[in-house]
């Protein structure tokens, strides 16, 4: 290991990554030194190295994002790849994508970051400040903000200057964006301006509560429809908003699942489709006001019949599916059931009937992916009879002998292990085992009638 690390320039990028993963696996199992001073020094050194690794990660993420490689693995977007494969939160994945996409416009920031002269926090602050600027303004803002960093300004103060730069650019371009300082951040607001051709310009601000509703409703539907979807995120969001608004006149639907005994006076609680329990009395009141749809179930809780077979699932069938599936049927996909599409498990074109026991719910992305890449979808059923789709690696990856579950972001457990980490840990275990074997060979334990070699 020491000989490999001593000449990193002669190693391939893959070998360097594998070596770092091996060292990280070893370091993670070591306890911190007893000395606080030593621990402080090591933490600072490791923190700076981690910032440089984040720079490398941004470059790799940017290449995956630019080439659309994640789509070949059944992942709708680069953000979904980061969340599913690396176990990132939505916020962290969004931040890493912003860094990856802005690096090409910020060459000086990238150079300083790679050299270890710019912390990750400062790099993130600069990137946030220039995200909505054009290339010319971004280059000017980069020079100003990095100059403040050189002067010792904190990330918070640099962020304030970045905000002011955006306001100045908005005023210069007469974009009509009101100053955030005038409106504040407590109440949401939206301004609507009519264009000459009958269209509308929309601008506004959502407080955290309204933003959560926006993300929960629109974000899942605004994902790319597939590798051929060339719309940017702004166009997809507008199309999603129009789709939601076009159904806004429909009455809100609430599905309550309960036993017949509960409806006739029993005390067993009912539940909503997301699993939330509700008291029996409340379930009876809902049934009294909304009516009851009977559902015949078999011994294994399989729906047996819900109307005649048609090309598209009817409303009653969809209600049953939403009661059975919390999310998309694809393992690891978290698109909620009410935002999914009804999928014929074996395919309508292949003769699958529109019967309730031949249907599942999948998000729009995975519904199309299953149709265009049937060889990458393995279908099974869980103990409750629900269909479970597992995505397989692309065919060329499987042919190369890398089709094991550790390369599949939907089947690997735990999700945050990458293949490099797995290989590194295996090498580390083999190294420890080899050391133990050599020790046993050099110092065999004493056996019956055999003196220990070191006894005199």
TrEMBL record:
Matches recorded under CDD domains: HNHc
Highest taxon of source: Bacteria
Spans annotated as Disordered: 398-456
Residue span, DUF222 domain: 44-324
Listed Basic and acidic residues bias regions: 398-415
Protein name: DUF222 domain-containing protein
């Amino acid at each position: 290991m020491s000989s490999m690390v001593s000449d990193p320039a002669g190693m391939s990028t893959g070998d360097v990554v594998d070596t770092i993963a091996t060292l990280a696996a070893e370091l993670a199992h070591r306890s911190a030194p007893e000395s606080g001073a030593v621990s402080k020094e090591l933490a600072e050194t490791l923190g700076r190295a981690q910032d440089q690794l984040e720079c490398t990660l941004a470059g790799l993420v940017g290449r995956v994002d630019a080439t659309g490689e994640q789509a070949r693995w059944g992942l709708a977007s680069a953000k979904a790849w980061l969340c599913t494969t690396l176990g990132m939160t939505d916020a962290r994945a969004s931040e890493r994508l912003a860094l990856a996409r802005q690096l090409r416009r910020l060459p000086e920031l990238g150079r300083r970051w790679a050299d270890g002269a710019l912390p990750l926090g400062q790099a993130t602050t600069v990137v946030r400040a220039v995200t909505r600027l054009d290339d010319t303004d971004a280059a000017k803002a980069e020079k100003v903000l990095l100059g403040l960093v050189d002067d010792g300004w904190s990330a918070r103060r640099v962020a304030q200057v970045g905000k002011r730069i955006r306001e100045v650019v908005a005023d210069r371009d007469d974009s009509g964006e009101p100053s955030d300082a005038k409106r504040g951040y407590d109440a949401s607001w939206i301004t609507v301006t009519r264009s000459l051709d009958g269209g509308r310009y929309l601008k506004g601000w959502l407080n955290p509560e309204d933003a959560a509703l926006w993300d929960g409703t629109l974000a899942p539907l605004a994902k790319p429809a597939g590798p051929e979807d060339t719309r940017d995120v702004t166009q997809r969001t507008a199309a999603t908003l129009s789709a939601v608004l076009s159904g806004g006149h429909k009455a809100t639907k609430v599905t309550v699942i309960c036993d017949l005994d509960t409806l006739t006076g029993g005390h067993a609680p009912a539940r909503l489709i997301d699993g939330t329990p509700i008291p029996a009395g409340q379930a009876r009141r809902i049934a009294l006001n909304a009516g009851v749809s009977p559902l015949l179930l078999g011994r294994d809780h399989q729906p047996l019949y819900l109307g005649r077979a048609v090309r598209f699932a009817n409303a009653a069938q969809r209600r049953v599916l939403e009661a059975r599936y919390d999310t998309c049927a694809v393992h690891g996909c978290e698109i909620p059931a009410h935002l999914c599409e009804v999928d014929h498990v074996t395919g309508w074109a292949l003769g699958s009937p529109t019967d309730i026991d031949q249907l599942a719910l999948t998000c729009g992305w995975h519904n199309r992916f299953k149709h265009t890449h049937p060889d990458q979808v393995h279908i099974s059923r869980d103990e409750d009879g629900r269909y479970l789709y597992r995505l397989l690696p692309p065919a060329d990856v499987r042919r190369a002998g890398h089709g094991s579950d550790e390369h599949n972001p939907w089947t690997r457990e735990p999700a945050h292990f990458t293949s490099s980490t797995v290989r590194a840990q295996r090498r580390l275990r083999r190294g420890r085992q080899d050391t133990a074997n050599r020790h046993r060979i050099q110092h065999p334990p004493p056996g019956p009638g055999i003196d220990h070699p070191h006894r005199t």
